[in-house]
Amino acid sequence: MSSTREVVVGRVGKAHGIRGEVSVEPRTDEPERRFAVGSVLATETPAGTAPHGPGRPARLTVDGIRWHQGRLLVRFAEIGDRTAAESVRGLVLVAEVPDDEVPDDPEEFYDHQIVGLRVLTTDGDEVGTVESVVHGAAQDLLVITTPDAREVLVPFVSALVPEVDVAEGRLLVADRPGLITPLDDEQG
Asked: By mean pLDDT, which of 34-38, 71-75, 108-112, 158-162 is the weakest?
């Protein structure tokens, strides 16, 4: 029996029109597959936003999908009007995938592939271990725990994380002043 895990596939954006359609920022290279009509997606509230409650359902069922001016627009069965659409703005959308599934794009990774990797600088210095991935509005952040138990946040962008080697169990970070090593005035 195959087990599954949850992966982030998108983030709900602005309402579009008055019938409950929303824009979605895809976090997948396969939006047509992940947002196929009938797909049920779990929702997560990003840090710093209102928790689930009235108007913020824990699951959404895809009822329609289309592209409009380069944006993905999705209609969910549970969202019937603009007010309901505005109430789900910012929710992170999560799909269940088989444990052994990997993204088709070699430059894309599921969170579970990244968590636990050793982190080294591009100079080969030990930084720590990836503890989690935070999905922010602008970009994803790697939460890295250093050997001295500090928590470091690194934007998961190619300029700062030029190499991810899942098979070798490591990723490289291009250190910048204050990114990994605190600046002198921050250490006090």
From this structure: 108-112
